[in-house]
Design a protein that fits this description.
The protein is an alpha+beta fold. It folds into two domains: about 60 residues, no CATH class; about 150 residues, no CATH class. The protein has eight helices and eleven strands. A three-stranded antiparallel β-sheet has the order 2-1-6, with no helix packed on it. The protein has a three-stranded antiparallel β-sheet with strand order 4-3-5. β8 and β9 form a beta hairpin.
């Protein structure tokens, strides 16, 4: 599904000359690996699976990167990205691991597993702290998972993604609350959680349940008053509108 995204253009001076917001002849191809190939790229014709953009600027503002050989001497970076680089995301700013706020030995990972399980959970022998088995239905695939060791707790809105969209300015207490908020925690396949990394929904979507995932993502963004990039916000709104229609 393709969406028209409004972006703020910026300039890249490359080995091929000035590539600005002026439209380049032919579409710019964003490959599945996120590289933006203008027609001048040596990989242009070989890139068969791609998302098309009208200009290089559109592709870059949608989160793409320049491939080797197209990288220029000078890049003028948008103000939002400059701010992001200056703030230096640190996972420890959101607390050290999963929190056990009520002191019952079940941290927020265990509590997420307990809350979302469709059957009573089984704990490690002699302890009620560590969940080992139960029955979970992954919101990313709709598949049943029975071993807790196969599960990662996904931050629906990734911590690193949130950092330069507002969380970097929060108090430590608010960041820890965000990192352990049950609304932002989903038990999913470990492999998919690691594939997602710190990407927003315009860069990564689960195999199943995409509408529910994006809707939940956007709900959390609104709850915490995060500020997505203009292109990200437009993409999310367009995606949700398409799903409703």
């Amino acid at each position: 599904m393709k969406h028209s995204i409004r972006i703020v253009p910026f300039l890249v001076i490359s080995a091929f000359g000035l590539l600005s917001q002026t439209a380049i002849a032919g579409v710019v191809k964003m490959s599945s690996s996120g590289l933006c190939h203008p027609p001048q790229s040596s990989w242009y014709e070989r890139t068969q699976n791609y998302r098309a953009y009208k200009s290089l600027d559109d592709c870059l503002d949608a989160g793409g990167k320049l491939p080797k050989g197209v990288m220029g001497k000078t890049t003028l970076i948008p103000p939002q990205q400059t701010l992001a680089m200056a703030q230096n995301y640190d996972r420890s700013a959101f607390g050290h691991g999963w929190d056990d706020a009520d002191g019952d030995c079940q941290d927020s990972r265990a509590e997420a597993l307990i809350a979302i399980s469709t059957t009573p959970v089984r704990f490690a022998t002699g302890k009620r702290c560590r969940v080992v088995t139960s029955r979970w239905i992954s919101p990313f695939t709709n598949q049943v998972i029975q071993n807790a060791s196969d599960i990662d707790i996904d931050h629906v809105v990734p911590l690193a993604w949130s950092w330069d969209r507002g969380a970097g300015q929060w108090s430590r207490e608010k960041r820890e609350r965000f990192a352990n908020d049950p609304v932002n925690l989903w038990p999913v396949e470990a492999s998919l959680n690691r594939s997602k990394g710190a990407k927003g929904p315009n860069e990564w979507l689960p195999p199943a349940g995409q509408w529910g995932y994006v809707a939940r993502f956007y709900r959390i963004v609104k709850i915490y008053k995060l500020e997505p990039r203009l292109a990200e916000n437009d993409w999310i709104r367009a995606f949700l509108n398409d799903c409703r229609s």
